[in-house]
Amino acid sequence: MLNKTIASVLPLLPAKFVWVFSKRYIAGEKLEDAISVIKEFNRSGYRASIDLLGEHFALTEQINSCKNEYLNIIEEVASDNLDTTISLKPTMFGLLTDSSKCYLRIHEIIKKAATRNYFVRIDMEDSTCTDLEINMFKKLFNEFPQNVGLVLQSYLKRTPGDLKMLREYNNSRIPLNIRLCKGIYIESEDIAFQKHDEINYHFLKDLEYMFQNEFYCAIATHDRELIDGSVMLIDKYNVSKSKYEFQMLYGVTPELRTSVADSGHPIRVYIPYGKNWFSYSTRRLKENPRIMSHLIKALFFKG
Ligand SMILES: Cc1cc2nc3c(=O)[nH]c(=O)nc-3n(C[C@H](O)[C@H](O)[C@H](O)COP(=O)(O)OP(=O)(O)OC[C@H]3O[C@@H](n4cnc5c(N)ncnc54)[C@H](O)[C@@H]3O)c2cc1C
After folding, report:
1. Rounded to the nearest whole angstrom, what is the distance from the C-alpha of residue 270 to the centroid of ligand 1?
2. Cα(114)–Cα(50) distance, rounded to whole angstroms?
3. pTM assigned to the model
């Protein structure tokens, strides 16, 4: 209740105040801020994934400016030879207003990434986007199998079916590159598991299916129980380090990140940046007030 109240009040507070909460999780407003964070992580042996903040855009001018920023990201990370992938959210490019135009914009980004040997991950948004994003991925995968990946969410009851469908769809020799996460949006119990134990059970079931079927698995979690369960599966199937990686969000559970890295597992850190950090932070807090307690801890105990 307290988390909910604070989350609803936050958008009314000055941005400077909200920044105190948010700065641990966001590299900064500018591309150069994100690049210097990526360089730091690369120097310490971590891979990165860069993400420009913003979602649900409808104005063409705003959408085009995001597309140009992504083209620029590719230029800059390639010129510094950074060990990073690029993550994007299709609703930033108008997915829900004009999915054909959205496809063309994302196609342009991935085409450029492919010429520079970079990889673009399509983040998974709420369930109104799932079919659209899966279909978009399938089309892009046909053309750029090495350069595009998708995210699936273990809380969605449909995910085992989607994994099976994608496996059958892939008749190339290139493994499908899927990030598996729990899912961040609030979804109804008709379509999504609600309980922690159920979501975790399905996460490990989905991951096992992916290992059994030659997917490249990006295991995105900060949940110790899931990390331990994933490591057991990695050992059980003797999965090579070239076929999986762990992924964590910038600023979240750094001690856990270090301990996973110290055990020799590859890790990628997801690094968001951009001017939209304020609406992103406040919207996320309203969507999921549970993360408020993490932010409060970050403010009072971590600086
Ligand atoms: C790299 C990456 C990419 C993701 N991409 C997507 C996506 O495309 N679509 C999507 O729906 N979801 C995405 N997510 C979010 C994901 O679905 C979960 O909502 C989120 O990771 C929390 O789940 P968890 O597995 O970490 O477990 P939880 O049980 O939620 O968290 C485990 C522990 O991690 C810590 N923790 C978790 N989240 C935070 C936080 N925000 N701040 C501080 N501490 C925290 C807490 O200590 C918590 O107890 C992504 C997550 C990661 C790591």
Report:
1. 11
2. 16
3. 0.94
Name the percent of the chain in helix, strand, coil, to the closest 5.
55, 15, 30
Say if strands 148-153 and 120-122 run parallel, antiparallel, or are unpaired: parallel
Cβ burial of 76 (10 Å; 0-12, 13-18, 19+) is middle
- pLDDT tens-digit series, residues 120-141: 999 999 999 999 999 999 999 9
Residue 133 has phi, psi (to 5 degrees) of -75, -35
Q: What end-to-end distance do the CA atoms of the chain give, in Å?
A: 25
- State in Å: Cα 288 to ligand 1 middle: 11
Mutual orientation of helices 196-212 and 159-169 as an angle, nearest 10°?
Answer: 10
Question: How many whole angstroms from 166 Cα to the centroid of ligand 1?
Answer: 24
Instruction: Locate the ligand 1 atom nearest the alpha carbon of residue 123 and give its number.
Output: 8
